[in-house]
Specification:
alpha+beta, elongated, about 375 residues
Length: about 375
């Protein structure tokens, strides 16, 4: 192993911890083989994402925008072969390779004549596809080129596996930390399957929630379950906010499930589109910071103030008097904050807000995610 290989391997394992470094890895692979670029496509929780060096990024953007990622027989052939190494696209695509639309309409006009790629399978059916492209002047990949790539491939595979395990460990650590302060919690992936749940959450099986198909969960409270499904669907949107879902049984409200979408640094643990579920019990005489309510539920400053006063037990009439405004105006703010939190009754909102006092403040700060 020469010093360049050792440096590349170091870059690969660094990328497993810092995903932004994968671009440098792809660049190094390409430069070593006289390529003109390369790419990394990942399929995780049913979501496709990609990365590429700056020199070829515009081409990859055209590739995705044109829908070629969805009509690429090269990838289908690569998956079908299930070869534990790098293969040339011309060796895996069915039919006359030179006549394929993706070749004649997309690759050749952009001087991409040869591609070597490999598929690496991760946990939970995740896939990573690494590829290196060459222009016409560089010629085909030689057996020696593919042999060198195959020597690097085990490090790529370990890095992909390490990334997956690290995310699972981070998720387990996050839910375990909440268990230490008595809070049932679970983390859901973007596809709504359970990534991690602490023992307190698992103890609620059969009473608060039940196992559902494909590794998902459902709430025993039918009305609350509909709200949870909607919250998880909304969390796929960039503008999603926390949803608080009162959960009841025959005796009334037993707790409030807070569905907290991944944002800021929390994406590193929850994943893009992931959700943290926290079950909290309402607390009497709790003091809630209006700023928490402002960003958690996207309330206006006035709505957050009204919500805080409601949580402290102040009546609508009392809030109007304290703020020097009309009762009708306060009721308008109450209707707005109910709409934003997805609740229909003022009593449910008060239970929801007061339950936030059971959650550590660090969980509810922007910096913490």
């Amino acid at each position: 192993m020469d010093s360049d290989d050792a440096d590349l391997i170091g870059r690969i394992y660094t990328a497993s911890l810092v995903p932004e470094k994968w671009v440098a890895v792809i660049d190094s692979l390409s430069n070593r083989l006289r390529g003109r670029g390369g790419s990394l496509f990942t399929l995780s929780d049913g979501e496709l994402s990609w990365d590429a060096p700056a020199a070829i990024r515009a081409i990859m953007e055209d590739y995705v925008a044109g829908g070629w990622d969805k009509k690429n027989p090269r990838l289908a052939g690569l998956l079908a072969r299930a070869h534990p190494g790098f293969l040339q696209d011309s060796d895996v695509a069915e039919g006359d390779y030179e006549r394929l639309p993706i070749v004649t309409e997309f690759l050749r006009p952009r001087d991409i004549f040869h591609t070597a790629a490999t598929v690496i399978k991760g946990a939970h059916e995740d896939l990573a596809v690494f590829s290196v492209d060459r222009g016409q002047a560089s010629g085909n990949f030689t057996p020696g080129d593919l042999g060198w790539l195959d020597g690097i491939r085990p490090h790529l595979a370990r890095a992909v596996a390490l990334t997956s395990r690290l995310k699972m460990r981070q998720a387990a650590t996050a839910t375990a930390a909440l268990a230490m302060v008595g809070i049932p919690a679970a983390i859901l992936r973007r596809n709504h399957t359970v990534l991690s749940a602490n023992a307190l959450f698992e103890d609620l099986a059969g009473t608060v929630f039940i196992a559902s198909a494909f590794g998902r969960l459902a709430l025993t409270d039918v009305r609350a379950n509909r709200s949870l499904k909607q919250a998880l669907a909304d969390n796929r949107q960039a503008s999603s906010t926390v949803r608080s879902i009162p959960i009841g049984n025959g005796a009334g409200i037993v707790g409030v499930l807070h569905a907290i979408p991944a944002c800021y640094h929390a994406r590193d643990i929850l994943g893009e589109g992931g959700t943290l579920l926290v079950l909290a019990q309402p607390k009497d005489s709790s003091v809630i910071d209006p700023e928490w309510l402002h960003w958690l539920y996207d309330l206006s400053p006035t709505e957050a103030d009204v919500a805080t006063r409601l949580a402290r037990g102040v009546t609508v009439e009392g809030i109007a008097a304290a703020r020097g405004t009309s009762i009708a105006s306060v009721r308008t703010h109450v209707k707005s904050l109910l709409r934003k939190t997805g609740l229909t009754r003022q009593s449910d909102f008060i239970r929801s807000v007061t339950s936030l006092a059971a959650i550590a403040p660090a969980m509810l700060s922007r910096q913490a995610g």
